[in-house]
Amino acid sequence: MTDLLLLHQFLMTGLSADPLLCLASSVAWLDPFWDEFADEDDYFEDDSSLSLALRVVRESFPDIYVQAVDLLRGGGNYADLDRLVCTEISQRGIPLDNLEWIGFGIPMPAYGVTLQDPDFYQAHPDVIPIVEAFGIYPEEDKYTVHVPDCVYTAGQFIAADLERYEDEHYQQLSWLIQWVFSCSGNATIDFDDESLADIPPLSWDENDLAFAIELIEEANGIMGDALAGLAFLTSQPELMKALQHNVRRIYKAIDRQKGRQDNPKVRLSWPVIHQTQEHPTVG
């Protein structure tokens, strides 16, 4: 027994005296999964959600990985790790709700509108007056809503026309129309869950992660502007009348072009927005 203790003391002394061995010992203590995750050939294969989560945070979020290891050392369970990782990643702009989704790539929000889906209007009844201005009339007892091609043509034309104005309210109205008619150019704004699922997911590597965060931040800004535009439009009857009038002019232009949807020849007219100290008005 004395020989074993002496051998242990000898090894510890040698370890302490060798900088490389000290570094290896520190790595093994600070990063207990360094050897388990060394082989990337089977990355994400036959792994549990816990192992996948640790792999992702180790590669992409080292600071979260440190917290996760510390949590596990302190006796934390799967639920604790789930809460920690999802909260920390969500605070960085990625909407992760459950560790089970981490192996499917970066989760992205899907704000896209499906005008043919009656459920959309139940979730967003405040949008109904907008789509009615384009001649869309959702009915609760219908399985689908009829949306002619000319509606999308008009929506895209109006969004582009409003974008030309420097006034913040018209810029917001443009984002509103771009959201409703899926023509913003931002995939998270233009695609619903089903459409977004058809796109290969972004990986957790550095470049994809930076791109995803930028895309989500842009989408959140667009949605903020779109909802502000919706509130402003529904509070201004004269502006709503102008929208209805411009939609009719576009439809007539399409009729004159014998149904051709491309580039309707029409000039739109919008009322002037008067700024006051309290509320902007249209007149």
How would you describe what is shown here?
By secondary structure, this protein is an all-alpha fold. The chain folds into 2 domains: 31-104, no CATH class; 118-282, no CATH class. It has helices at residues 2-17, 19-30, 49-60, 62-73, 78-91, 118-123, 128-132, 149-163, 168-180, 187-190, 193-197, 206-234, 237-256, and strands at 273-274, 281-282. The protein has a two-stranded antiparallel ribbon. A hairpin with a 6-residue loop joins strand 1 (273-274) and strand 2. Helix 3 crosses helix 4, helix 8 crosses helix 13 (237-256) and helix 9 packs across helix 12. It is elongated, with a radius of gyration of 28 Å.
Give a summary of the structure in a few sentences.
This protein is an all-alpha fold and 283 residues long.
